[in-house]
Amino acid sequence: MPDRNKLILPILLFSATLTVMAGAIISPVQNLMRDGLGIDPSYVGAIITTHGLFMALFSPLMGSLIDKKGVRGPYIAGLFIFGIAGGSGLLINSYWILLISRAIMGIALASIFTCINVIILSAYEGKRRDKVMGWRGSAQSLGGITWPLLGGVLGNISWHLPFLIYPISIPIGIAAYEALKEPVAQDRNGKQSKEKQSIIDIIKTTPVIFIILGLMFSSSFQLYAVVIYLPQFLETFGISSTVKISLFITTMATAAGTMSLVYGKIRGRLSYRTISIIGVLIWAIAFFSISKAQVLPTIVFSVFFLGAGQGLIMPTVMAWIGEVVPVSFRGRFSSYLGTFGYIGQFLSPILLAPALIHFGIRGVFTVSASIGIIWFIILIHCCPKKTKNGFW
User: Fold this and answer.
1) CA distances from 291 to 80, 156, 217, 230, 345 (A)
2) Does 276 score more than 80 pLDDT?
3) Would you say 227 and 346 are in contact if contact means Cβ atoms under 8 Å apart?
4) For the residues 346-351, what does the mean pLDDT come to?
């Protein structure tokens, strides 16, 4: 379909940046929100991650709806609701009401995330699909550069102002309404797939799905370990400016975007398994480096390589899942990626809190490094070198 309507691909890529915007645009102002709302420092992380919890909870519902009814309605509705709910933070001064608005935004994001993946998986094949998945990753990373910087600049005026950016999804929804006229969740013959398998049957015969979903969980978990704890870590180096903090976050996004941009070429030479092994090894080394950092250049170097690891893992899991499941189940399994990813985001500050309490901020990054090592071992010893469908 993107080949028949040139507007679809730009709309998809811009929409992909919204999944990053959801949390990243307000990350530089989290310390200001903490003070403005008068809340304990341990509560501020929930403002950034609550949308992730609700995105995770509602993703399976959205995936089932998309498989049965198509992507157009859920996609357009998600874009409109995202803009309205996200932008409402501009006027909110209550912590709990702000959390409710973030929850509604997360439900909308569940639809957006799953629809993007299903459209790409359905409309492209082979090398072209890998290239577009890489572009999607680059678009997300570009959003990870642009949105935090803009949030940091606006945050210097008021912590409310970054919320003004969320309604940008509304004109994108209008464009999608005009451009997306046909169903796209089809097989290569243009007909809906009729597999009579159940989800349990697919999981039983394709256990590599557990690896893919686990990597998605860990990728988001590791990402938010940086988004939430890096600003606090930088305070120990005397850096509290929202603009300066956003520069560190955009360094990671720049690396991720660069890696994703060339992902199609990387995938042409390496298997999904091999790319994943390289990615998690980068996680381990970079997080360990941060945990031992004594000077700012070490942090910059480490954050850059964390971004490179993310730029490898994210396109891999999104393309890999589409290769190993039947066409008629792509909506549901794509939604499970969203569920696992955003549960990872939501649980990141919760599960890492004991490390923060007992070992300090450096302990958080040491634990994150250990997660990378564990994944390296799992992928080497437990991940099949080749699935029954032939996708490595």
Assistant:
1) 41, 29, 22, 11, 20
2) yes
3) no
4) 85
Tokens standing for residue 336: 């499970």
Give which of 366, 327, 71, 88 is closest to 197, Cα–Cα.
327
pLDDT for 171? 94
* C-alpha–C-alpha distance, residues 19 and 42, integer Å: 24
CA distance 151 to 166: 11
Measure the CA–CA gap between 214 and 309, rounded to whole angstroms.
15
Q: Is the pLDDT of residue 191 over 80?
A: no
Angle between helices 72-87 and 169-179 (to 10 degrees): 170
Has residue 392 been placed in a domain? no
Return the half-sphere exposure (C-beta side, CA atoms, 13 A cut-off) of residue 27: 30
pLDDT tens digits, 289-338: 999 988 889 999 999 999 999 889 988 998 888 788 877 787 788 888 88
Task: Give the pLDDT confidence of 90-120 residue by residue, as tens digits.
Answer: 888 888 999 999 999 999 999 998 888 888 8
Residue 40 lies in a domain: yes
Instruction: Read off the tokens for 219.
Output: 């990728």
Q: Please compute, for residue 75, the number of CA atoms within 13 A of its CA located in the half-sphere on the CB side.
A: 32
CB 113 within 8 A of CB 21: no
**Side chain identity at residue 122, one-letter code:** S
What is the number of domains present in the chain? 1
Rounded distance, CA 53 to CA 57, Å? 6
CA distance 294 to 83: 41
Helix (H) or strand (E) holding 18: helix 8-24
pLDDT tens-place string over residues 133-187: 888 878 877 777 788 778 888 888 888 888 999 999 999 999 988 887 654 444 4
Length of the chain: 392
Q: DSSP string covering 180-245, please?
A: --S-----TTSS-------HHHHHHH-THHHHHHHHHHHHHHHHHHHHHHHHHHHHTTT---HHHH
Question: Distance (Å, rounded) from C-alpha 169 to C-alpha 152?
Answer: 20
- Which CATH number is 117's domain given? 1.20.1250.20
Per DSSP, the three-state class of 90 is: helix
- Domain assignment of residue 86, given as a range: 8-381
> Is residue 200 situated within a structural domain?
yes
Distance CA 214, CA 337 (A): 9
